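User: Could you write out the 3D structure of this protein bound to zinc ion? I've included everything you need below.
Assistant: Certainly. Input first, then the structure.
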Amino acid sequence: MTMPTGLKLVLFGPPGAGKGTQAQLLKERLGVEHVSSGDLFRHHLSNGTELGELARGYMNRGALVPDAITIGMVIDRIGQIADADGFMLDGFPRNTGQAQALESALHERGQQIDRVIHIRVADDELIRRLSNRYICRVCQRPYTRDAATGAPPEGCADCPDGGDIYQRDDDTSEAVANRIAVYHQETAPVLDFYAARGLLANVPGEGAVATVNESVLRALEGNADEVFP
Ligand SMILES: [Zn+2]
């Protein structure tokens, strides 16, 4: 299939949905610039830019970095990307204020978002994927649950006395469920913002990587909000 060029995209997906993998595949397929808000923050902090120093001031006080700084970093980056190249935003916008600021800044440049891809996976599947990680307390070898029994191994195969296999606090199903709930809470209003503009495609993310990628590419053609409402 022939893909349009210069696409301007926003990518959403809960933790465990495989968003990073799909971002990489999309970048290769479409030739768009991958604009990750996490990468931008690290860049501005490590280079000590004006925006980076402003952000550091808030972080050092344990305060939230104001939207204006995050918006500044993203708009500045987008300004460096040629219209013909296009981009894919990842980790931004996180609230409707940021979405509105993005829309205004693009409008001033005669641009707009073409499509918002939301990779959707059922919560119980995300919890199953993310709470599957175990580790040996002695040698740190990673393990997963046995596919048949659903139980973690009883002892480490590498350690002479069969080291204790445990789960980190971050990986317990309760901790994972909490991360997912926070994601939904943060994201729902932003998804509504884009759905109201007919830009949102809710792409099923439960199949194999290649299948999900095909669905994402289909969502970029035509009226994908009708294909993946
Ligand atoms: Zn071990």
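Residues 8-123+199-227 form a domain with the Rossmann fold fold (CATH 3.40.50.300).
User: Perfect, thank you.
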